[in-house]
Amino acid sequence: QVQLVESGGGLVQPGGSLTLSCGMSVHISNFDVVNWYRQAPGQQREFVASIDTEDFSRYKESVQGRFAVSRDTSVHMVFLRMNNLKTDDTGVYYCNVNLYGKEYWGPGTQVTVSS
């Protein structure tokens, strides 16, 4: 059973920064890719960023250059550093992995960007 837990969300002003963390109950090496998604109020969940076992990362176009995803295999965690936050970045952020064809999600962490 895989368990994911996100943390680090909060209220921040536009232009501010936050770092989200995703902790996992199994060794991170089990996953080819770890994804970050977000869901804004009234919107569908959308892809934000991902990182693979080679530390290759991908980003949603609107966060490219502002967000950075990284991982620490020694503590089985993945991080999402978010800089120059905009009001459109508001939402619940989720960590996601796939193991043997089954999707796993954390409960999410709320990020609110507001003045």
Structure keywords:
115 residues; seven-stranded mixed beta sheet; single chain; globular; four-stranded antiparallel beta sheet; mainly beta
Polypeptide structure, described:
The chain has 115 residues and is mainly β. 0% of the residues lie in helices and 53% in strands. It is built from no helices and eleven strands. The protein has strands at residues 4-7, 10-12, 18-24, 33-39, 46-52, 57-59, 67-72, 77-82, 91-99, 102-105, 109-113. Strands 2, 4, 5, 6, 9, 10 and 11 form a seven-stranded mixed beta sheet that branches. Strands 1-3-8-7 form a four-stranded antiparallel beta sheet, with no helix packed on it. Strand 7 and strand 8 form a beta hairpin. It is globular and about 40 Å long.
Number of helices: 0
Which stretches are poorly predicted, pLDDT < 50 over at least 5 residues? Answer: none
Radius of gyration: 13 Å
* Coarse shape: globular
What's the N-to-C terminus distance? 40 Å
- H and E order: EEEEEEEEEEE
Short recap of the structure:
By secondary structure, this protein is mostly beta strands.
Topology:
Elements: E1 4-7, E2 10-12, E3 18-24, E4 33-39, E5 46-52, E6 57-59, E7 67-72, E8 77-82, E9 91-99, E10 102-105, E11 109-113
Parallel strand pairs: 2-11
Antiparallel strand pairs: 1-3, 3-8, 4-5, 4-9, 5-6, 7-8, 9-10, 9-11
